[in-house]
Amino acid sequence: MILKKIYANLDIKRKLQIVKYNKKIQSRLNLNIINYEKYSKIEIEIIKYADKYGKFININENDEKYYHINFNDNKKEIKNKYSIKKTFKDTKIKIIIDYQVESFEYLFSDCICIKSINFKKFYKTNINNMHSMLYGCSSLKELNFSNFITKNVTDMSCMFYGCSSLQELNLSNFNTNNVINMDRMFYECSSLKVINLSNFNTNNVINMDRMFYGCSSLIELDLSNFTTDNIYNMSYMFYKCSLLNKLNLSNFNTNKVKDMSCMFYKCSSLKGLNLSNFNTNNVTNMSFMFDGCSSLKYINISNFDIGGLTDISYMFSGCSNDLKKNIISNNKNIKNIAFKE
User: Fold this and answer.
1) Alpha-carbon distance 86 to 312, whole Å?
2) Which of 31, 51, 224, 306 sits a CA distance of 20 to 30 A from 5?
3) Residue 331's pLDDT is what?
4) Residue 181: helix, strand or coil by DSSP?
5) Which residues, in sequence order, are bridge partners of residue 144?
6) Contacts of 126 (CB under 8 A, 6+ apart)
7) CB atoms within 10 A of CB 100
8) For strand 272-274 and strand 246-248, is the pairing parallel, antiparallel, or unpaired?
């Protein structure tokens, strides 16, 4: 099942084949690896294929892309009715991927058994898509991205979606210069306590919708290095980040943003927010934007322009009465509908 996830994006209709390096087809039988729940530790290498690798799994009819499978350092030819369970006892699986592969989309999607992934070695790579790469890997606790190459990637949306066991992520080596989409990138990473995004370049990103949705264990988040000049959607961006008490958005440019609905919904540990740099001229929806921010004592929205808004319903619902009074006294254009419970 793990291997099926790997080739699914490239061509769901083609069947895995077992081949030799000389491309002579040994068997056209479907690869059938049962009991994949056993394989909780995975090592990934992206290499230029060479003669020293004896068996390959071909996923492309023109014989250009190969996957070499190495179970517990023991190369085996997989034959008809061959059961991995009967032969291998450990929990490791090693996958060597030819460098010509261009997409990691849905690579390990819903592989709920995986606890550790080590991207050990990268030869020159053209990978440009990481959408939903680790989607639903709910048992994943360890990731080694130290050799990860992302310079050609344009899509990182849903990349860590549902990785609910991850507690720490160091993405400081990520090159995101060409990334356009980051929506739902860390969606429901509910155990994530520490995340390093210090080198993220977001100049070309246009969508951060639900980016940190449900990251309920995050305490601090410094996004001061983020450039948001081209972002049009920030809705649900920090939805239910309930332990978040320090949030730096000092460099945010929101000139093009149209939707901020539920942006800070139930960020119940936030005590202060300085959003004086927010330009809301093009925003049409701020409904539930601060709903449930029950600890919020200070908020600077001095430059908010809600004249063109079509929906500000329940914008401050669930906030303290003192905060509401302060907002009303300093922002005469805020309508009562924004405070409804």
Assistant:
1) 61
2) 51
3) 74
4) strand
5) 118
6) 99, 100, 101, 102, 152
7) 16
8) unpaired
> Cα–Cα distance between 154 and 41 in angstroms, integer?
27
Give me the residue label for tokens 């993405």: 171
Distance CA 75, CA 38 (A): 18
Question: What are the tens digits of pLDDT across the range 123-153?
Answer: 767 889 999 999 998 988 989 888 888 999 9
Q: pLDDT tens digits, residue range 55-75?
A: 333 333 333 333 444 443 433
Q: Where are the domains of the chain?
A: 199-341
Round to whole Å and give the CA distance between 287 and 259: 9
Tokens linked to 185: 């990138």
- Token pair for 239: 């939805």
Closest CA to 256 of 287, 283, 224: 283
Pairing of strands 142-144, 298-300: unpaired
- In angstroms, rounded to a whole number, what is the distance separating the alpha carbons of residues 29 and 19? 11
- What stretch of H or E contains 330? helix 321-330
Q: What's the rounded Cα separation, in Å, for the pair 248 and 240?
A: 17
Q: Is the pTM of this model over 0.85?
A: no
Complete DSSP assignment for 13-57: TSPPEEEETT--EEE-PPP----GGG--EEEEEEE---TT--EEE
Q: Is the pLDDT of residue 102 over 60?
A: yes
Q: Are 3 and 57 in contact (CB under 8 A)?
A: yes
Residue type, 67: Y
Distance (Å, whole) CA 114 – CA 139: 6
Q: Which amino acid is at 176?
A: T
